[in-house]
Amino acid sequence: MAAPKIRREQIAGMNIHYVNYSLDYFLDSQQRCGFKSIELWCAAPHVWLDHMRYYDAKEIARKISRRGLSVHVLTPENCTYPYQFAAKEKDHQERSFQYFANGIRLANELGCDYMEVNSGWGYWNEDKKEAWQRSANMLHRLAEVAAEEGITLVMEAVMPEESQLVIDLESAKKMLDQVCHPNLKAMVDTCAMGVANETLEQWFDALGNDVRHMHFIDGTPYGHLVWGDGNHHLGRFIETLNRRGYQGYLGQEITDSRYFLDPAAADRRNMQNFERYLED
Prior knowledge:
- It contains nine helices and eight strands.
- It is of the alpha/beta class.
- The chain has an eight-stranded parallel β-barrel, surrounded by five helices.
- Strand 3 (70-76), helix 3 and strand 4 form a beta-alpha-beta unit.
- Helix 1 (23-33) packs parallel to helix 9 (263-274) and helix 3 (90-110) runs parallel beside helix 4 (128-149).
- The longest helix has 22 residues, at 128-149.
- It starts with 10 loop residues before the first strand and ends in a 6-residue tail after the last helix.
- The mean pLDDT is 96.
């Protein structure tokens, strides 16, 4: 039986594990490793984005284009920065809204199709229902901005250590149904999926074509690892993508600190593991 196949353009390199290197170093590395697409993680020092404005979009776009790369997905940092989708205090809410709205505008200016979001999190010592409603309200407001800018928001589930809101398929579907906006769709993070003991098949069964993007990485199930360093079977995952007709991007969200010293070597090895599954 022939190996399942994906297009090289579907594999989107990310810059999270390059945080100790310059943006130019990251982009040069992607070019050398054979990537054609990137998912741009927005955090200093690579991309300056805050609740007031975004910076240097034309220069960033020029650097990407000059290397024959395309950016299709924008991911504003939303786990370690103070901005988050279920913020409680009024000032925190408004600063977070402006931050993510600026991310949507930057995504538009860079020519992206998608911007990644999640549910955010509430305080662990408050009523979950209140945090849930704040998240839904924020996501709807942002989806309205996304509609104006021609961007689709793609929402991932996160791990239980990160939130008590959208942490699995059931809660993701509940949030998507509640917000019910054409500019908010689903994405799969295979690490969070594994932690929740779920499968790609289950996500496609529940959401079908509304799965628009993926953070498609190996794991144990924890780790956000380079393919080959975890327990997932790359070929079987790609076989599922083929069977379900998935044509979206596969963001390589590699976050484990073991890769921070030499991220380019990690990306080379990661791409090598994809080679046998690439269309000619």
